[in-house]
């Protein structure tokens, strides 16, 4: 009997946890981590840290959820179910701790991220996660979480809402611009108008809010630079940029945006 057990154990393929958890889409890492980093850098707090942990666990749970529903390999599906259970437990536990430690009720601040996340999840579970509406919803879910982290850190409704806008102004036009450019390299048809309109509205709104004292000057300056980047990327003729190169460029933009806005917010 021990020999049979040993043979059966060796016959079971080992599945690396990372292979069923880590997202394959490199751009999704930036979209998820930028808002969490901005929230924690601008408004460092213990409840905010727990919220960021909950959001990150939810981000990692996306792939195991898909595999648990669709994977035909028994070992991989079993590993995905285990990973999903662990990540769900981490997310729920972190949320409970954040609610206990936060100085305000966070339920209202979680509505926008939850709704946007639910929209993305509906698309993603139907294998439509790369649709335009799905990508925008996913970016909005994490960008809106910045306001939740700020509220957990004790910021007022106006201050947390301003930080939320600053992140949405970066994330949503960026998703639209990158999506438009990548699609154009595959189809030969470029549709720049939606992304240009979104970038223009973000920069213009930031200018108005800054003029009224609701946003620091760094936000409209940064969003204007991103507006120029969108025009250069989608309007002016240029050599084709590979998707990998474009991803690294956007990573650089994201790091610069998060660090500059977080450090200069209170100045």
Automatic annotation (TrEMBL):
<feature type="transmembrane region" description="Helical">
    <location>
        <begin position="137"/>
        <end position="157"/>
    </location>
</feature>
<dbReference type="InterPro" id="IPR025576">
    <property type="entry name" value="YwiC"/>
</dbReference>
<feature type="transmembrane region" description="Helical">
    <location>
        <begin position="107"/>
        <end position="125"/>
    </location>
</feature>
<feature type="transmembrane region" description="Helical">
    <location>
        <begin position="37"/>
        <end position="60"/>
    </location>
</feature>
<protein>
    <submittedName>
        <fullName>Conserved hypothetical membrane spanning protein</fullName>
    </submittedName>
</protein>
<dbReference type="Pfam" id="PF14256">
    <property type="entry name" value="YwiC"/>
</dbReference>
<keyword id="KW-1133">Transmembrane helix</keyword>
<keyword id="KW-0812">Transmembrane</keyword>
<feature type="transmembrane region" description="Helical">
    <location>
        <begin position="81"/>
        <end position="101"/>
    </location>
</feature>
<feature type="transmembrane region" description="Helical">
    <location>
        <begin position="217"/>
        <end position="236"/>
    </location>
</feature>
<keyword id="KW-0472">Membrane</keyword>
<feature type="transmembrane region" description="Helical">
    <location>
        <begin position="248"/>
        <end position="266"/>
    </location>
</feature>
């Amino acid at each position: 009997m021990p020999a049979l057990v040993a043979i059966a154990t060796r016959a079971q393929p080992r599945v690396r946890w990372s292979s069923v958890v880590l997202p394959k889409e490199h751009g999704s890492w930036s979209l998820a981590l930028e808002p969490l980093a901005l929230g924690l850098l601008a408004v460092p707090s213990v409840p905010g840290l727990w919220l960021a942990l909950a959001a990150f666990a939810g981000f990692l749970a996306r792939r195991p959820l898909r595999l648990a529903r669709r994977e035909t390999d028994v070992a991989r599906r079993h590993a995905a179910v285990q990973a999903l259970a662990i990540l769900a437990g981490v997310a729920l536990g972190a949320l409970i701790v954040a609610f206990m430690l936060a100085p305000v009720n966070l339920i209202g601040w979680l509505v926008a991220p939850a709704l946007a996340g639910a929209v993305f999840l509906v698309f993603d579970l139907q294998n439509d996660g790369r649709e335009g509406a799905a990508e925008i919803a996913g970016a909005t879910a994490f960008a809106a979480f910045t306001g939740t982290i700020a509220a957990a850190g004790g910021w007022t409704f106006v201050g947390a809402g301003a930080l939320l806008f600053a992140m949405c102004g970066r994330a949503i036009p960026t998703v639209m611009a990158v999506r438009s450019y990548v699609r154009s390299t595959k189809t030969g048809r470029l549709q720049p108008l939606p992304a240009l309109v979104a970038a223009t509205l973000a920069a213009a709104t930031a200018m108005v809010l800054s003029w009224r004292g609701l946003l620091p000057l760094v936000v409209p300056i940064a969003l204007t630079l991103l507006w120029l980047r969108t025009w250069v990327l989608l309007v002016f003729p240029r050599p084709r940029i590979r998707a990998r190169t474009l991803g690294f460029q956007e990573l650089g933009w994201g790091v610069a945006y998060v660090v500059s806005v977080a450090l200069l917010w209170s100045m």
